[in-house]
Amino acid sequence: MKYFYNFLIGILMGFGAILPGVSSGVFCVIFGIYEKLVNSIINFFKDFKTNFLFLFPIGLGGIVGVVLFGNVIKYFFSLYKFQSCYAFIGLILGTIPSLFKQASTNKYVEIKNIIPMIISFLFGIALIFIEKSLSLGTTNSASSSYLYLILSGFLMSVGIVVPGISNTVILMCLGVYTTYIDAVATINFHILVPMGIGLFFGCLLWIQIIKYLFDKYHQATSLCIIGFTLGSVFVLFPGFAHGIVGLICYPIFFVSLILSYKLANLENTIST
After folding, report:
1. Burial of 121 (0-12, 13-18, 19+ CB in 10 A)
2. What is the pTM of this model?
3. Where are the domains of the chain?
4. Where do the DSSP E strands lie in the chain?
5. What is the pLDDT of residue 91?
6. CB count in 10 Å sphere of residue 33
């Protein structure tokens, strides 16, 4: 059961690598596996069997999510944008109580550690204005260069590892978003392989940094991730739904909220 659960999380992470405004790392936070994922990658060879059995379903799900369902989800978001965004917002907000519980290991939250959360939250909101100021169709003449694609994949890894930072924003800033989406749709290995190389080494670097921060400043780092996660809600928010769309969106939001809250409480049982 837990392997299938991790496979589904991997699929959602694959979605996050494609969808505008969505971070892959947010899904790890939503389902309570973010810190465990970081530790499993860092200590992969120390307990090879356990870490492999944990990471393999997630990695496989990520590939399935990107390759098989990328166009489907992209189409679904374009056709039912409000409903999809409200569902994701509900999923995110439903996990917040559990995240605060995990962060407050000493039964309370230190005031000084709230500052990183506020900063990361404001940074997440700032990404809204960055994303809206950029064009999805922008391309860069350098996007055909293998070296530039490796660099793009390397920088894209920030959006994979750090919750709340959208891959879309990074790729649009670099002018390769359309190139990336087209490569996923057509499975163009000439684009995907160099980007994958950069992504792999970038993830290794950022995971080391995150692991260090968790070890040294666990509560501050946890609250910072909560801030990024909350900021992503504002990135996703499509506006208030009205009329028939509103009658559909708000129930979807509350169902997603309750479902996410229940899943967050059950996660420890499933993962053991």
Report:
1. buried
2. 0.63
3. 2-271
4. none
5. 77
6. 19
Using alpha carbons, list the distances in angstroms from residue 124 to 13, 49, 159, 160, 206: 19, 36, 12, 15, 18
Who's near 123: CB < 8 A, 6+ residues apart? 227, 228, 231
Under 8 Å between Cβ of 14 and 69: yes
Tokens for 10, please give them: 């991997």
> Once rounded to an integer, what is the mean pLDDT over residues 115-136?
72
Question: Can you give the length of the chain in residues?
Answer: 272
Structure tokens, 236? 């996703």
User: Which residues have a Cβ under 8 Å from the Cβ of 109 and sit 6 or more positions away?
Assistant: 100, 103, 219, 223
Distance CA 102, CA 146 (A): 42
Residue with tokens 């390759």: 67
Cβ contacts of residue 12 below 8 Å, gap of 6+?
A: 27, 61, 65
